[in-house]
Amino acid sequence: MSQAEVVRRTGATEGARKTSPLWTFGLLRSELLTTFRRWRTLALLAVLAAVPILVGIAVKIETSDGAGGPGGGGGGPAFISQITNNGLFLVFTALAATLPFFLPMAIGVIAGDAIAGEANAGTLRYLLVAPAGRSRLLLTKYATTMAFCLVATLVVAVSALTVGALLFPLGDLTTISGTRISFAEGLLRALLIALVVAASLIGVAALGLFVSTLTNSGIAAMATTVGLLITVQILDQIPQLHAIQPYFFSHYWLSFADLMRDPVYWDELVKNLGIQALYAGAFGSAAWARFMAKDITA
Amino acid sequence: MEELPAAEADEHDSVGAVIATRALTKRYRGGQLAVDGLDLTVPEGSVFGFLGPNGSGKTTTIRMLMGLIDPTSGTARVLGQPMPRAARAVLPQVGALIEGPALYGFLSGRDNLLRYDAADPTADPRTRRTRVAAALDRVGLTAAAGKKARAYSLGMKQRLGLAAALLQPRRLLVLDEPTNGLDPQGMREIRSLIRELAAEGTTVFLSSHLLDEIEQVCTHAAVMAQGRLITQGAVAELAAGTRGRLVVTTPDTGDAARVLKEQGAGDVVITDDRVTAEPPERDLADVNAALVRAGVRVRGFGVERASLEDAFVALTGEGFDVAG
């Protein structure tokens, strides 16, 4: 075969194989479908949906017994005592109860498994020779993890709203500042709070993704991410570490309650979102640098 | 990134070669030298057998060719373009089965292929289902397409991995141990599939430790041991490089051996009623006549063709299944 023939053939083949412009979305769609069709994902969402149900039933039983003041518990800032007056408060209570542990743990599982799980199964090498492209695959994984953050938070919120509506009355509500707002505005604030809670998980997601690029074992990556989460939560309780605590990804998590003030107190909310952006930037870049240079031997 | 200087693509020694490596070397972080100065040339249109014992560096080489591992030094060109730099342009034209199939156990066979196809930037989503169905049909998995992949047998997984490599028309197929885990019938099917693909003009790069398999389907072969390339070339030439052995079947083995030595045959070995030797540099008819003249009762006389295995043993001085 002559040289010219080879060149012509190469040209023709490349011409026939144009990159489809919507390809990245196709990859993202495939990733989302794959993630949300796993039993593990559905089980995590089921656990998250169960939390508001348990809290709702517990509050209902306690108050119908005619017992005195409601227990403080993990309910967070003064929301749990209001549930009996207004079912909408179950949304805030449930989010406050799941944000410190259940939600970030679920994110840790999904993010930690993102790359390491594929490496463990060997499917990573086939995605890369397809070729998905390392940057695109990583971005797709991060986007999917964030989509899971949002879905997980909304599952908690919707489950809480449903249980709240079934067990307790709904209506106008009182903000933390003591002013009255309409039920419609309360719903809007609940949605806003759910979005802020989902955004609070961006930092953990980036951290989990970075850990996931370090190992070929999905289980190890998940365990490390969840372990880091618990460690940070503990360190955040030690008064001597006061100076570094504002840099923990979880430090301003419960600031979402400020959205229930009138007027809204934005200071810590903004700090929280800033910290999440910082973590996403730092660990996102670290994950990218690591993944681009990694030898895929699994 | 995908556009490369034309001069580079026309580089003399890569024209006509689907795979060309120059001094390709990989040293792992632990200091272990997995591939040592590999110069491999795979001609276009060949069925190329890549041989070597376990641990000889075959898989590391394949991973470097596919852009999964960065070489420590040296260069690799696939389809005339440098890897891993041109991976985006090269890999859509390459189908690969590397170190066995890897599947999503919780997805059906069909969904596994749909996912792999979605990862290919050049795959047309409109024809995806048709192409997946065609690939499943080609490997005989249509009936099991709806089953979860975790319920597949090893042979079925192997077929599904092959189907993933056949989702698009390819210029090069890289198949690492493609008949692993298959029953004899499955092996035969895969071999005929490989021949079929080669007839369509696809270059097939086949790694295997089964020498007879390579001999049956390959036009060219290369042998690796301990990270180095020992030899490469057309299979017929490799086997011809080793001369066949003269075999005499006779009840009078002692006399036969003596006569053969007198006739100039070397390395005479007696086993049961067979005497084998390096054939001497003269007409074998004369050798046979000499045997008969000496009163040796000859039952059989002939030269056994050298197999690739003989060639391999001659090259490495050791059996094939020795870990490097």
TrEMBL record, chain A:
The chain crosses the membrane at residues 39-59, 79-103, 142-168, 188-211. One of its GO terms (cellular component) is plasma membrane. It comes from Streptomyces regalis. The keyword Glycosyltransferase does not apply. It holds the Pfam family ABC2_membrane_2. It comes from the Bacteria. GO terms for molecular function: ABC-type transporter activity. This is ABC transporter permease. The keyword Ribonucleoprotein does not apply. Keywords: Membrane, Transmembrane, Transmembrane helix.
Automatic annotation (TrEMBL), chain B:
InterPro entries: AAA+_ATPase, ABC_transporter-like_ATP-bd, ABC_transporter-like_CS, P-loop_NTPase. Keywords: ATP-binding, Nucleotide-binding, Transport. One of its GO terms (molecular function) is ATP hydrolysis activity. Residues 19-251 form the ABC transporter domain. Transmembrane segments: none annotated. Belongs to the ABC transporter superfamily. This is Multidrug ABC transporter ATP-binding protein. The lineage of its organism: Bacteria, Bacillati, Actinomycetota, Actinomycetes, Kitasatosporales.
